Amino acid sequence: MTTKELQQVLVKLGYPLVTDGAFGAKSKAAFISVMTDGLDTPLSEAQVKEAAAQLGVNTAKIWTIWDVEASADPFIEGRPTILYEPHIFSRLTKHKFDASHPKISSKSWNKKLYPGSQKGRWDQVTQAISLDVDAGLQSASYGGFQIVGMNYKICGYTTPWDFVYSQSRDEGSQLLAFVKFVQGNKLDKALREGNWAAFAKGYNGSAYKANKYDERLAAAYAKRSK
Fold this sequence. Notes:
The protein is mainly alpha-helical.
């Protein structure tokens, strides 16, 4: 998606922009507004039961991922909770912006590049989008299950925008993406068996041990199972 194409989408959603291909202040404001104006409808027990049935697990395991990934806080100030990843943006753009924009494009993972606030993280995303729309959208994780945008295809979406827009609408859309992600990466078996190490490795990568992600999942599941 080009900047002009993104502007055209924002115009169709009701924002009066000049589609000039320059992602300036008005375009950034419109993008943030679109990310904020979803219904943010919470998950229902029926939705969680259906997802659990699709994955062949009990509902406690669905809620466990929810608890650990975004501390059960899928939306903050009306926007999906995010974590922007400079190293992913760098990889997707072939390190083109590492020198000129070191705070949003880094060849290696660097925890110091994570702002503490959601506002700071959304600022990173909008800056990244101003440089490369698709790469910017793909370089953050979104919502209650914190799925990274670059997984849009495996989650059943045609474009990065389709995925990110859906994650900004409601918690049900975030749950649907989670189910697709788990099935597409064949993590449902590990989830059914309660093999938290295998699930953590597939869901969050090889750094899961350093972050004790499997231990956190096991503890959260024990709590949810009571």
